[in-house]
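Intended use. Records such as the NAD(P)H quinone oxidoreductase, PIG3 family entry shown here are meant for training and evaluating sequence-to-structure methods. They are not intended to support clinical decisions.
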Amino acid sequence: MTSIDGHILRMTQYGGPEVLELTEVSVPTPGPGEIRVRTRYAGINYTDLKIRAGLWPIRGSSPFPYVPGVEVVGEIEAIGADVQDLDPGQAVITMMQGLGGVRAQRDGGYAEFVVVAADAVAVIPDGVDALAMAALGLPGVTAFEGLRRLGPIGGGRILITGAAGGVGAAATSIAKASGATVTALITRKEQIDYVRSQGAHDVIVGSRDAARDLGASRFDAVFDVVGGTGFGVHVASLRDGGALCLVGAAGGGDVGFDAWQLIRPITLTGYSTETLDGPSLRDAIARLGTLIASGNIVPPRHRLVPLDAAAEAHREIERGNSERVLLIPQAGREV
């Protein structure tokens, strides 16, 4: 196997979207235990924007040049020595585990080809549309893992905050498929139809940081992507025996709640995909694949953007567009 040429988007400094530069590079041959993946879809996540702006600095003394992107869906193009149970041509998904991100152990997913450890991929199940899996992608895995930490939710009532965002929408769809009755907390009335299409039974429109009409002891579970000043309200909305899992803090990490809540029989926990490993990824993708194939979950709304238009996509997301954006590796390529 030999190296090949491919395009990447890289940055040599922190800054605005304009620091993303399309560059042609030589893609390395996969080494022992590695595979090379030809990218079909690379999701844009808020993590990418935070890192690009320097708000979440890249770890390491020499962070640049840096290639953003923490997830890729594509086909195995080449395999290195000692790789078992994977073959060229298989559709796979990989995310986190040092792919871009603040750890940046490898170049990220804004690229035509990525080289990753074979253990860091999951094969997309036969019969599952790769685009549907990419649309779920990291938000879907985050939602799945966060919901799992709440314990069984079938037959219960669950509050999902930030339900119109990528993770919240995925959580809404997965929770509905699990048999829960979902109440979606959103910030704008125009989001109502969308969250209902994802599986919400009830919808509350209120401030991102506080929805005072949630009521006390109302929900069996809370899936919280907001945190912030509304966190205390979310905690108080739990019934005895309920659980809350925090998977994000769009409203800020400075939270507070009535300390007396801690003597109630409730569980407060959290999840971050920084802890994601290969076995967990493969389990989540297998389960999500089953739900996609059966039509029991609806991938969040999404659109395709050429790799060389990523800077403008970053600008749109920063202006408040919450639609899932998937980069495709060649400008104008039909997918």
